Amino acid sequence: MNAGESLRKLRERKPLIHQITNYVVMNETANATLALGALPVMAHAREEVEEMVGFAGALVLNIGTLSPAWVDAMLAAGRTANERGVPVVLDPVGVGATRYRTETAKRILDEVDVAVLRGNAGEVATLVGVAAEMRGVESMGAGGDAADLARAAGRALGVVASVTGPVDHVSDGERVVAIANGDPMLASITGTGCMSSAITGCFLAVADSSFDGAVEALAAFGVAGEDAAVDAKGPGSFHVNLYDALAALGPATLDGRARVS
Amino acid sequence: MNAGESLRKLRERKPLIHQITNYVVMNETANATLALGALPVMAHAREEVEEMVGFAGALVLNIGTLSPAWVDAMLAAGRTANERGVPVVLDPVGVGATRYRTETAKRILDEVDVAVLRGNAGEVATLVGVAAEMRGVESMGAGGDAADLARAAGRALGVVASVTGPVDHVSDGERVVAIANGDPMLASITGTGCMSSAITGCFLAVADSSFDGAVEALAAFGVAGEDAAVDAKGPGSFHVNLYDALAALGPATLDGRARVS
Amino acid sequence: MNAGESLRKLRERKPLIHQITNYVVMNETANATLALGALPVMAHAREEVEEMVGFAGALVLNIGTLSPAWVDAMLAAGRTANERGVPVVLDPVGVGATRYRTETAKRILDEVDVAVLRGNAGEVATLVGVAAEMRGVESMGAGGDAADLARAAGRALGVVASVTGPVDHVSDGERVVAIANGDPMLASITGTGCMSSAITGCFLAVADSSFDGAVEALAAFGVAGEDAAVDAKGPGSFHVNLYDALAALGPATLDGRARVS
Fold first, then answer.
1. Residue A205: which domain range?
2. Which ipTM score applies to this complex?
3. Is residue B203 part of a domain?
4. Residue of B65, B100, B235 lying closest to C42 (CB–CB)
């Protein structure tokens, strides 16, 4: 784990992060990607996703506003990413809320080799069959301990499970790391979960491993969230500050303030 | 009418507000919903809308960027909402500008029991057959008096008509209430009409009646607009302030400043 | 060239700018259009684009997030715009990155009489067959001189070529004008290229010629970018300031600060 070094590489190499994501947050995840220092590209047409992902440093699939044509494109892009060795992040937004979301997320996990699954506790619990309460796309909490959930998900799904919440937990099924950065205001605007998935894609493009990249991304996004909260008067100004904070985040600051255990 | 009490309930219960809305404002209406204190969910696939609306406190249909698959989903979601007793808000964005919008809005009004129709004077006038001038999705004014228009719409369409403008008017076809809150800067950014519809959905989920909810929502959004204008240097900073103001709005402030007559 | 006079006319006449654009920037280009003083309308359904464009002062086609139904709508709207004398702006976002984008941009240029082609150097170079390096939708530079590229594109494609970069160049194939306004922070957020295309549409609706409109638009957007950078702490606050600056831009200021040669 060397978050500062990864951030330095990311800004030097400016990897292209191909995102097939939902309509609500496209602008937000593109701007978060740019603010951090990578290059976002949004492309969802079956006609071009396989070609586009060939240039990418990572692929981020997000099921927040699904429809059949987009699911086809996600599967096609995911398979090509696997062939080319491009790491894939899956954000199973709202899984558990409807059968369509649950089936789609499971199908992607079946047909695509997902490097990192980034979700909230309710979403991840749904995918490992643990009881969870979803209200739309919001997790109302899941039974049990978050560290155990991350480990169980990593083991059962063969992914790095990145479970975000008041404290985040990342596990490959054996190791579990807790990241205690962030601010409650991150829950006051839409799309911060999606941003953390996009940023996970950014770090995967440069990190030593999927596990390291997932941890480093949550530390970076958490520290930026803390900085954004300082002068925020509410969710609007917090949202603005968040981009400023991502752009201002320095490697040394990140290493010094990351609360990873 | 008890706007403060409804706001208190809304923050306590955090109802899910299912929105099938346009691409331009999805992020904005989701963030306005969150800032006020409810939970937004955007889902538009025919495969999941009926299941999703079953969890919702209100359904908001907005025709701002139409296409056939979305119209089908709106009708399916609307019918299910009616079966489950979930109140439906219709925002007929740009109706009158093209036949496709006019026909779609009329079809939704025919096939779905709409609780509140929230539009500008030109849009509402179009739907009741009164002469109106539309320029794209902007109303250039409608003939006659806004209070009369609201009453005529309420009567002709069997809805609570919520007609926004410099002064807003809400009518169920008999009673007419005027809401004199708001600020001219609300017209300087896109999506404020759509936000007022989303917020109408939020209040419908907790108010004593559709009429009360429609009035309370416009008072709340208007007071937030006034607060947002105070330090705004232009449309960009007004937009940011608007989310801060929605989040900061307290029940007592809302009751004290609502200008409803 | 009389940028101030065009800005004055634009605010007086409030032309409708019909935009068929990408999901990432729709809100941003709509708000930039409004902030400047024109009226945006986003409509992409095959069922309504021909009718909608009939009311428009300009049509902006942007291929940033393509799919077949959208391409059909762009072609239909473009042809109708040509019949009605409505000027068309094409923004070939990411052309060169995938065959689908390249073929679509060429097809639009073949089937629609495009008044202004607004792109970065890599995009424009791709369309005239000059070597260029694209990374997703970002230009990594093109061989040769930007003024020569603009002239070559104007000549080869029969358009006014508007090539943006550190210094912008506009050419009709004979004349070449350089616009030296702007700020490096414009590259720190997504959608500023798309905004410059939308603003080109705004100016085309009122300018004496497509050439003049293209130049005036880049001067106006560049001056607003300079103002937005003054107090910006990063990309988030720059983004907010940009809308404030567009709205605050006065005709005399624009004429005084435009660096056109």
1. 3-257
2. 0.95
3. yes
4. B65
